[in-house]
Design brief:
α4 packs parallel to α5. The C terminus is likely disordered. The protein contains seven helices and eight strands, in the order βαβαβαβαβαβαβαβ. By secondary structure, the protein is α/β, with parallel strands linked by helices. The strands form two sheets. Strands 3-2-1-4-5-6 form a six-stranded parallel β-sheet, with helices on both faces.
């Protein structure tokens, strides 16, 4: 931890704004950067992208001080930095394990976006590894801690609305039958990250945390496959 008392963050996946055709969602910049830049608890001390040059471009693009924020090109580089306390991975789902395993082995705390990895086997590899090394870890499922979820949980636990026997959830994923070229990997099941695994996982975490319920699902929910077309912006 820094002398300031802040947790020092090594950030994987924060790309500079796209100059041409986008190559992903840049979720790191949208979801995490605004908070981390203004937080009284965290400070960004390193960026790691697919190359040191790309990390340096991101440092410049977001006006970080290059004397205080290091640029790295591999997960091993950021894992070996003694000034990094917490490593945040916000990249494609099927690359989560590769980005974090070196840091876990270096006994650094880690944050990984949901889904944890592309499949159960890879996700279990990560969870087993954090247990083995006894590192603190967070998966980016946070809806269950929202005020509305905790309030509903409190009302149910206190019996304010009687005994809840069942509940119905109706949701709609963003998008539709056409997927932009820059996120074409969403329609490749092997990547593990798509509108179903991401959206459904977040929704169910929100509901089960809020209602303390176990799920009973119907196969009818998944019976109709969606045909996706890919277009280029």
């Amino acid at each position: 931890m820094a002398a300031s008392g802040k947790i020092r963050v090594g950030f994987i996946g924060l790309n500079a704004p796209y100059a041409g055709a986008p190559t992903g969602t840049n979720w790191a910049a949208q979801a995490h950067l605004p908070y981390l830049r203004t937080s009284s608890k965290y400070e960004i001390v390193a960026l790691q992208n697919s190359s040191t040059e790309r990390a340096a471009k991101a440092i410049e693009a977001y006006s970080f001080d290059p004397e205080k924020v290091k640029a790295y090109g591999t997960p091993e580089d950021i894992a070996n930095d003694p000034n990094v306390d917490l490593v945040v991975s916000s990249i494609r789902v099927d690359r989560h394990a590769g980005s974090l395993i070196p840091s876990i082995k270096a006994n650094k705390d880690v944050f990984v976006e949901w889904p944890i990895e592309a499949n159960y086997e890879k996700a279990k590899e990560l969870t087993d590894l954090v247990r083995e090394h006894n590192v603190r870890n967070v998966v980016g499922l946070q809806g269950g801690y929202a005020a509305v979820a905790t309030k509903v949980r409190s009302m149910i636990d206190n019996g304010d609305i009687g005994k809840v026997e069942s509940s119905t959830f109706i949701g709609k994923a963003r998008g539709g039958g056409i997927v932009s070229q820059h996120i074409s990997y969403f329609v490749d099941r092997k990547t593990g990250g798509n509108l179903f695994t991401i959206g459904f996982g977040h929704a169910m975490e929100f509901i089960t945390k809020g209602e303390s319920l176990q799920l009973q699902t119907s196969e009818r929910c998944f019976a109709s496959p969606i045909q996706h077309d890919i277009y280029t912006d």
